[in-house]
Write a structure and sequence with these properties.
DUF3039 domain-containing protein, 2 helices, 4 strands, alpha+beta
Length: 85
């Protein structure tokens, strides 16, 4: 008789990068871009609602990060911890 093993599967949604305007530099450019859940991005861009980044920062979405943009170190650490190989 074979033993049954109960397993569960979770789908981790890949966050996207978005601007945090609260931590802008003097010239208005964001200091860091943060990881945010994709389902919150469009709603925030349209309605102006606040989003919550992986690190806990809250802000309205105004821009999308470009390749090479600086990423929040806390968001990056958390995101890498979520990824499965």
């Amino acid at each position: 008789m074979m033993d049954r093993v109960n397993t569960t599967t979770k789908t981790l949604e890949r966050p996207d990068l978005r601007e945090d305007t609260s931590s802008s530099t003097d010239d208005g450019a964001p200091k860091f871009f943060h990881y945010v859940k994709k389902d919150q991005i469009v709603d925030s861009a349209i309605s102006g609602k606040m989003v919550v980044a992986l690190c806990g920062e809250t802000f309205p979405v105004k821009k999308q990060a470009k390749p090479g943009s600086p990423v929040c170190p806390d968001c990056e650490r958390i995101y890498k911890g979520l990824r499965r190989k």
